[in-house]
Amino acid sequence: MTDVALSIQDLQVALPAWSDRQRAVAGVSLDIRREEILCIVGESGSGKSMMGKAILGLLPGPHVRAVGGQILFEGRDLLKLSAEELRAIRGCRIAMIFQEPMTALNPLMRVGQQIEEVLELHTDMTQAQRRARVLELIRDVHLPEPERMVQSYPHQLSGGQRQRIVIAMALALEPALIIADEPTTALDVTTQAQILHLIKELQRAHGTAVLFITHDFGVVAEIADRVAVMRHGEVVEQGRVSDVLEAPEADYTKALVAAVPGLKPRVIEPDAKSKVLLRVTNLEKTYRTSTGWFGAKTREVQAVKNISLDLKRESSIALVGESGSGKSTLARCIIGLESVDGGVIELDGERISGRTRAELRPLRKHIQMVFQDPYASLNPRQRVGDIIALGPTLNGVSREQALEEARELLRLVGLKPDAVDRYPHEFSGGQRQRIGIARALAVKPKLIVADEPVSALDVSVQKQVLDLLNDLRKSFGLSLLFITHDLRVAATVCEEIAIMQRGEIVEHGPTADIFAAPTHPYTRSLFDAVPGRDWISSLG
Q1: For the chain, the helix, strand and coil percentages under 3-state DSSP, each to the nearest 5
Q2: Are the C-beta atoms of residues 463 and 539 closer than 8 Å to each other?
Q3: What CATH number is given for 314-338+362-538 in this structure?
Q4: How far, rounded to the nearest angstrom, does the alpha carbon of residue 364 sit from its chain's CA centroid?
Q5: Nearest of 124, 127, 129, 156 to residue 143 by alpha carbon
Q6: By three-state DSSP, how is residue 507 classified?
Q7: Are 24 and 44 in contact (CB under 8 A)?
Q8: Could you give phi then psi for residue 146, rounded to 5 degrees?
Q9: Backbone angles phi, psi at 135, to 5 degrees
Q10: What is the pTM of this model?
Q11: What is the Cβ-side half-sphere exposure of residue 305, based on CA atoms within 13 angstroms?
Q12: Counting CB atoms within 10 angstroms of each CB, which of 254, 293, 328, 476 has the fewest?
């Protein structure tokens, strides 16, 4: 009996005629062995997800389709099976864990029903047996209160809990192969660490082969037995994880490894004469929602609790914490998108909290925001030049001058000036984020608030955007409030760090000091959860 669970031989996946290349996957050959985790790593557009979808017949045809090669599984070529034959294999022999669990789950069905549906479609179990198996799976993925969990709807669970439910569905029939497509990208670092540990634990317990698709070499170091690096639809390097990470041969692999954010913090001597630009004093923000019949009950969540913070001119602070820690709420209060319940926010000695929108309007040019999702924050119906020029024109600059300044800003952020005539959908994610940065700079602000601006980007694009922010800070004399859940990113960008948990700052100080000796247990847990921490530390 062979130890190969699935063999991909010279796989060719065609793209539509209008695409920038002919093949999404161009001649890929890979073997996925039993009881191992093979990581496929590469940037967006490398073809890794297309390859994963081709295995299960999930390509978005007819324009994207497999046109050559073989995918051999249990003696059969999956590319030659009928739709009905593939349905019998999906979930039963090969299962998939998707990147975004909320879209993979039916919002109208309880999660227990969704796991049970897999068993009902593929087994002859009685209803009692199915329910017992569902509870067993819930326990296997370490979810609390299984009886309550099965009765919950997806929106009632956290992102990490939803991902565990998707993993439980994938394991329901003990498949021979699990394809995990970026299953931890959208998760906080501690939740990510839990999910990676869970996948490895379950893979060993069940002897399953895992094809793990990712763009994060830290994840590769944490979980993989072997790794294959893809670029432009081709495998440029593959081998044992220790060999590829410690002595990469392909130039592309070397570039990806070099782009991984390290754990060596920025060390900048503070300017004792520098004045405070942003001062936050005893800030409070509570959200109240009505529940019960006719809103008889009120639920309160204190998102920001008595926070005080100073940011000096031409300096940067990273707000680090998990989802729900209050860091984005604090940023929205500072920029005036949320009202505050208590405390004071001052910019350059002038109080900005408690003002009406009309009163804030002349001050908004001094504080600009770069959002997490550059596509959602850019108007798809406006040309890039008009998007960037809008702020200056609202502040009295002529349209002609504003467009000319937009061209110069696009050049500064690494794009061609003629991009002013194109629309947001014509750019990649990294390019759209550069446009968002150019828009923020257009009104010559004193402070930029960057809310997770690189969390959705590939590691090499992420490095480019972080380097760009560093360069622009020096060129424009900016101060930066940088929000992230990734300590590696914080170390790259900021000389100070404030760690937030449950609406409070639990640790604050120079980045170098906190990285050298974190004192709060929560800060230490964030360090412990960094994927591939030992390997990343060895990079220097």
Answers
A1: 40, 25, 35
A2: no
A3: 3.40.50.300
A4: 28
A5: 156
A6: strand
A7: no
A8: -55, -40
A9: -65, -40
A10: 0.80
A11: 13
A12: 293
C-beta neighbour count of 358 within 10 angstroms: 7
Helices (H), 181-280: 189-206, 217-223, 241-246, 251-258
Q: How far apart are CA 190 and CA 196, in angstroms?
A: 10
CB 228 within 8 A of CB 236: no
Q: How far is CA 201 from CA 31, 146, 173, 222, in A?
A: 22, 19, 17, 12
| Nearest Cα to Cα of residue 257 among 486, 536, 537 | 536
Q: Are β-strands 65-73 and 94-97 bridged in parallel, bridged antiparallel, or unpaired?
A: unpaired
8 A C-beta contact, residue 11 and residue 69:
yes
CB–CB of 433/373 below 8 Å? no
Structure tokens at 343: 């405390």
270 HSE (CA, 13 A, CB side)? 16
DSSP state of 408: H
* Residue 471, phi then psi, degrees to nearest 5: -65, -40
Residue keyed to tokens 């998990």: 322
Cis before residue 16, ω within 30 degrees of 0? no
- Rounded percentage of the chain residues whose pLDDT exceeds 70: 97
pLDDT tens-digit series, residues 102-161: 788 999 999 999 999 989 988 899 999 999 999 999 998 888 889 989 999 998 887 788
Please write down the HEC assignment for all residues of 91-121.
CCCEEEECCCHHHHCCCCCCHHHHHHHHHHH
Which parts of the chain have pLDDT scores under 50? 1
* Residue 530 and residue 536 in contact, taking contact as beta carbons nearer than 8 Å: yes
- Residue in the block written with tokens 């073997």: 31
Residue type, 387: I
Q: Nearest-5° angle of CA 510, CA 325, CA 455?
A: 75
Per-domain residue ranges for the chain?
104-172, 314-338+362-538
Closest Cα partner for 493 from 320, 309, 274, 278?
320
* pLDDT per position as a tens digit, 41-72: 988 888 998 999 999 999 987 889 999 999 99
Helical axes 399-412 vs 429-441, angle rounded to 10°: 130
Q: How many other CB atoms are found less than 10 A from the CB of residue 502?
A: 15
Taken as a whole, the chain contains a residue count of 540
Token pair for residue 113? 């029903």
